[in-house]
Amino acid sequence: MDQVDIFKALSNKTRLQMLEWLKEPELNFPGQKEYGYAEGVCVGQIQAKANLTQSTVSEYLSILQRAGFIKATRKGQWTYYKRDEAAFERVSKLITSTL
């Protein structure tokens, strides 16, 4: 995990919101309920909640994935995203050791 990528990912309000939403997907993405949350949340659900273009949402999710905050799972034509909770522990340790 590159420090620059980590802090770049966290420097955008919408990306922070996405991470917050993915922390409690059942609460924030009720439209996903019938499909379950085991694989994560479908990018379409995230796009609808963010009210942004598909390309912007894809770019934001890509930045979060490169920084290690989320994991993607591809199922057919759909991509699902979920938080990597261990990444938040690593970032906490990084901040503590750096500052």
TrEMBL record:
This is ArsR family transcriptional regulator. Residues 1-99 form the HTH arsR-type domain. Gene3D superfamilies: Winged helix-like DNA-binding domain superfamily/Winged helix DNA-binding domain (1.10.10.10). PROSITE patterns: HTH_ARSR_2. InterPro entries: ArsR-like_HTH, HTH_ArsR_DNA-bd_dom, HTH_MetalResp_TranReg, WH-like_DNA-bd_sf, WH_DNA-bd_sf. SUPFAM superfamilies: Winged helix' DNA-binding domain. PANTHER family: TRANSCRIPTIONAL REGULATOR, ARSR FAMILY, TRANSCRIPTIONAL REPRESSOR SDPR. Pfam families: HTH_5. Keywords: DNA-binding, Transcription, Transcription regulation. It comes from the Bacteria.
